[in-house]
Amino acid sequence: MDERVHEHARTLVEWSARVEPGDDVVVEVGEGAHDLGVAVAAALGERDANMVTLYGSPEMERAHRLAHDGGFDADPEYELALYERADAALFLRGSRNATATADVPSERSQAYSRARQGIREARFGTDWVSTVHPTRAMAQAAGMSAEAYRDFVYDAVLRDWEALADEMARLKTVLDDGETVRLRKAGGPVETDLTMSIAGRTAVNSAASVAYDSHNLPSGEVFTAPYDTAGVVRFDVPLTLEGTRVRNVTLTFEGGEVVDWAAEQGEAALETVLTTDEGARRLGELGVGMNRSIDRFTDSILFDEKMGDTVHLAVGRAYDACLPEGEVGNESAVHVDLITDVSEDSSLTVDGEAVQRNGRFRWEE
Amino acid sequence: MDERVHEHARTLVEWSARVEPGDDVVVEVGEGAHDLGVAVAAALGERDANMVTLYGSPEMERAHRLAHDGGFDADPEYELALYERADAALFLRGSRNATATADVPSERSQAYSRARQGIREARFGTDWVSTVHPTRAMAQAAGMSAEAYRDFVYDAVLRDWEALADEMARLKTVLDDGETVRLRKAGGPVETDLTMSIAGRTAVNSAASVAYDSHNLPSGEVFTAPYDTAGVVRFDVPLTLEGTRVRNVTLTFEGGEVVDWAAEQGEAALETVLTTDEGARRLGELGVGMNRSIDRFTDSILFDEKMGDTVHLAVGRAYDACLPEGEVGNESAVHVDLITDVSEDSSLTVDGEAVQRNGRFRWEE
C-alpha cells in the first residue's frame, strides 16, 4: 500500500479527530475507500480505540431509496442510538462512480434527508471528520489521471497543519476584530464590490481538526458568518448543483438579501437553491481559502473552497461556531458555496484596511 | 447483475428474515458481497424497511486487532445499542481472501471475541440470518471455478423452501417423539456405532427462516441436542479448524463424554478444541443434512453440514431451541461440527426403527 495512505490515516485519527484510548469511533467506508479503511483501522488500533464500521454505498442507497414507497420513518432509533453514543465519526468518501445516484429523483432524496434530521444532529454532535480516498472516478470528475489525482489529494492532505493553523490564526484575528468586510474584483464583465458586516461574529480557523471546530480533511480556510450584505458579486469558479453545471453566477444584495441573480449556465438550478426558503437568499458564510497545496479546481467542494487565492460565500445556513453563544444565525435548509478567484485585480479589506490583495496577504508583502 | 442475485436477496429478506414494513434492519456487507448488498437494499426498500449498513471487512478487522494493545473494552455501548434496538440483522459473507486473518494470533482473536459476549447476545436476539455471496476466493477454497461455484451456491440457496420444510418436518416428528438414536456405519477402518439419548429434546426444522428458528441461508438440516452418548464414531469428511486441516476424526464416548480421540491429520487442533472446557467433550448437536442441492464438500460449514446424505455431530454448546424452556443444555465456549457421509453402509435408527438407511429416508423407500 502507498505509504501516503497510512500517513493520511494517522493524520485523520491523530490530528483531525484527536482519537483517545477507549473512544467509540464510527468509521464509514465508501465503496472505493477500502485501502484507507484498512489504514484507519490500524491507526485506531494503535490508539486502542473501539471501531464500528459502516459501509457508505451510494449504490445501496440508490437501490433502497428507489424501491421504498418514500414514506421514510423519522430517525430510526437504532441508528440514532449508535451516533448518540459515539465519540467520533470518520467518513471516508471514495466513490467508484461520482454519478451513482443521478437517477434518484431529488424529491425522494430530500424526503429521506428530511426524515433524518435527528440522526444528522447526533452525527454532528460527535467529533466527526470527513475525508476522501482518491479513486479513479474522482480523478475522472476532476479531469485528471489517477496518479496525478492521487498526488493532488495527498499534497492537500499531508500538510504541516500546525504551521498552517498558525498562519490562518492571523486572518482569524483580523476577522474577529473587524466590523465590515469589503470584497472587490475588477476586470470581469461584472465588477464585484460587496460589503458585509461581521461585527460580533467569530471566525473559525479551519485547520482540519476538531480541536479547531474544523471537520474536513483537507481543510485550510478561515470562515465567518457575515450579515447585512450589500452590493454585487460575481463567482467565476464553476460548480455542480445536483448534477447541473453552473457557471459565472452574479448575485446582487440589498439589505442583506439577494434581490437579483443571474448565471451564464445553469440558472434554473441556481434559482431552485435561492428560492428554497428565506434564509437561502442571505449569506451564511464568508470563507477565505488558504491551502495553497490545492492549486486547481477539481469540481469537489471539499477541495475547491480551500484553494489558495480564492474567496467563497455561501448562501444559506450559518455555522454555530461563528455565532455568539445561544444566538441563531441565518437559518436555511441549504448551504451552497460559491467561489471567486482573487489572484488578480482583487482586494479584501476589513474596516478599510487591505488584508489581502491579488491573493497576497498583508503579512506576505 | 445476475438475476439470481436478486432472487437470493428476496429469499433472504422475505423467506429467511421475514422483514416487515418499518423494521429496523442491520445489513453487514462483506468485502466481496457488494452486489448482493445492492440487491438486498432493493429488497428492503420494497418492504419499506429501514437500513443501516455495516462493512464486514476481515482486512480492517485484522489491522485493528493487530495494532491494538489487546485489552479490548467489553461490549462498547454504541455497538450494543445498535443491535439491541434492531429488529433484524443480515450478514452477507463474501470474502476476497479466505485467509485474510491468518496472521492474527488466535489469543488476540479470542480476547476480542470474549470482550464482545453482550454484543453477540444482542445480535442473536434479533431476527438474524447469515448468508454468502459467491466470490472467487470462496470458489478457490472449494477447489472450483467461479462459474461452477456460483451455480453451486444458487442451487443450494434458491430452493422451494416450503416444500423442503414439509419434508424435514417428517424427520423432526420422529426425533421429537424418539428417545434413543443409534448411528451405525460399517466398512471403514473404524466401525461407527454410537447411541445417544434425545428424550425430552425438541428438534429444529432448519428451513432457512427465522420462522423455523433457522438462521442460515442456505440451510436444510434437522438437528437436536443429544446427551448420554456412548460408543465410537468416525467422521470421514475433512474440516478446517483455525486454518488447520483435520481428517478422519474418531471419537469414543462413555457416559456422555469423549474418553478417547484420534485424527489421521490435525490431531493437535482437535485436541485444542476438546480440551477447551468440560462441555467441549460432550455433544451439543446431532444434525441430519437434507439439502440435496448441496452435493459436494466445499470446506465451508455453512454448506457442508447441510449436504444431503450426511450426519453431523457437534462437540460443545447446544442450541436453546432444542431444550425444554428454561433448561440449560451442554455449555461450552466451542461448537465444532464433525461430519460423516452416510450414503453407504450406514443406518440411523430411532428407538430401534430405521429412519434412514444409506442416505434414504424411511418415507423414500
TrEMBL record, chains A, B:
Assigned keywords, A-Z: Aminopeptidase, Hydrolase, Metal-binding, Metalloprotease, Protease
Needed co-factor(s): Mg(2+); Zn(2+); Co(2+)
Cell division keyword on record: no
Biological processes per GO annotation: proteolysis
Domain of life: Archaea
One MF term in the entry's GO annotations: metal ion binding
Pfam families: Peptidase_M29
InterPro entries: M29_Exopeptidase (IPR052170), M29_N-terminal (IPR035097), Peptidase_M29 (IPR000787)
Coiled-coil residues: none
PANTHER family noted in UniProt: AMINOPEPTIDASE, BLL6088 PROTEIN
UniProt record similarity statement: Belongs to the peptidase M29 family.
Protein name: Aminopeptidase
Organism this protein belongs to: Haloglomus irregulare
Lineage of origin: Archaea, Methanobacteriati, Methanobacteriota, Stenosarchaea group, Halobacteria
